[in-house]
Design goal:
single chain; alpha+beta; Immunoglobulin-like; 11-stranded antiparallel β-sheet; disordered N terminus
Length: 416
């Protein structure tokens, strides 16, 4: 199995970053029946590009200009739920949160028909239609990328953001995606008490490599993946009032390699993947071995245990074709010294969101290309430009990537 994601571990001492206060409205999105938090629900200021997604607790904080918020409404949507609209004026004052309960949607599709679909056949049909549903020519993209590395629950060690040009390779061949950093900035926060510092290697290319419509199941081809995974049908889901099959997958236990488990959301008409959520299938018996897949170098006095490795990829339909639109990687490790009872948690999150795409190739010079062994923290200063970021001069780690993009939308628009 390809080792697409890597981490470099070593000692370092640096400085910390500051925070910035901004006007906002906050809420928590829950299932109306079970009160379960809805993770990654879409939250949008109606009629604008200002949008975010909810976190693991279903919480969000939406930041917006006062003139656009006045008289506006917030639109909340989530797969399989009725879209909800809440006036901005209904939110409590800043610092307080509004609970928003979403109602599951009922779709009029015969359950007997859904159950009769052979999941293996559906899987092969999906990848048999790749050339019909996804671009077969190079596509130039402007993307916004960020990576955060935190220690324990609330200390951020690394905060990096970059505007990245991407030449997205066709989906009907094995050509590789290419990327180049246009602008970037970052900060490092390490105190003298920190004896361990974590760096993320190849994060930008990793964000592209988890595009499973192009690279199914960590390097397996369609037929090998069909043999290596079990597939089974889930309930019908809904995206913008359109029905989608949910195809669940789970690696077969007898295989020695680490496998994935997750769900694909498949358009019922075109058989295109609209979204895929997956994670490494880790049992309590192999967490130490799983960590070794991601660690390039570690101090001999440290022991690493994998907590989780989770991924999300979204696609967007434009003029009949589905385009890579967003990806997220979230990994966690526990680290302790040999013969010590105490341990620390290290979390790594990276996100890439497409802000613009053109139906033509983007020429990226060889010397500008991001390399698989590149560590963004080490060379982010080469791409700094304070004039580009203007008043958005502080990285806010708790801000969603969509809100961060909105802060620099004027700068991004100038590039179009």
């Amino acid at each position: 199995m390809k080792k697409v994601f890597h981490i470099l571990v070593f000692l370092l001492i640096c400085v910390c970053a500051a925070a910035q206060e901004i006007v906002s409205v906050s809420g928590r999105v829950l299932d109306a029946d079970t009160s379960r938090p809805l993770v990654s629900a879409s939250v949008n200021l109606d009629g604008t590009n200002i949008s975010i997604i909810t976190n693991r607790d279903g919480d969000f904080t939406l930041k917006m200009p006062a003139n656009q918020a006045q008289g506006g409404k917030i639109v909340i949507s989530f797969l399989g739920y009725v879209i909800k609209e809440v006036p901005v004026a209904s939110f409590p004052q800043e610092g307080q949160s509004l609970t928003i309960r979403m109602t599951p949607i009922s779709l009029e599709l015969d359950p007997a028909i859904i159950r009769s679909i052979d999941p293996q056949v559906l899987f092969r049909t999906v990848f048999g239609h790749i050339k019909d549903n996804y671009p077969t020519e190079h596509v130039g993209m402007t993307t916004f990328y960020r990576e955060l590395i935190r220690k324990d629950s609330n200390k951020y060690l690394v905060l990096n953001e970059a505007v990245v040009d991407v030449d997205k390779a066709p989906y009907n061949n094995y050509a590789s995606d290419r990327a180049a950093i246009y602008k970037g900035r970052g900060s490092v926060n390490v105190s003298p008490s920190d004896t361990l510092f974590v760096k993320f290697q190849g994060g930008i290319l990793s964000a592209l490599a988890i595009d499973m419509a192009k690279h199914p199941f960590a390097g397996l081809d369609v037929f090998t993946a069909s043999d290596a995974y079990q597939f089974y049908m889930g309930e019908i889901a809904n995206i913008d009032d359109q029905p989608f099959y949910t195809l669940n997958f789970l690696g077969k236990r007898q295989l020695e390699d680490f496998m994935f488990k997750g769900t694909m959301y498949i358009d019922t008409e075109s058989y295109a993947i609209a979204r895929i959520e997956f994670q490494m299938d880790i049992s309590d018996l192999n967490r130490d071995e799983a960590a070794k897949l991601f660690i390039i170098r570690m101090p001999p006095t440290m022991r690493f245990t994998m907590d989780h490795a989770e991924y999300v990829v979204n696609y967007k339909k434009v003029d009949g074709k589905w385009y890579f639109d967003y990806s997220k990687t979230d990994m966690g490790f526990y680290v302790r010294k040999v013969r010590s009872l105490f341990r620390h948690y290290y979390g790594i999150t990276s996100e890439m969101a497409v802000t613009d795409h053109k139906d033509e190739a983007l020429i990226i010079d060889s010397h500008d290309r991001v390399r698989a062994n590149q560590i963004l923290t080490d060379n982010i200063s080469d791409f700094e430009d304070p004039d580009f970021w203007e008043d958005y001069n502080i990285i806010q780690p708790d801000q969603t990537i969509q809100a961060a993009i909105q802060r620099i939308i004027r700068q991004l628009n100038r590039r179009r």
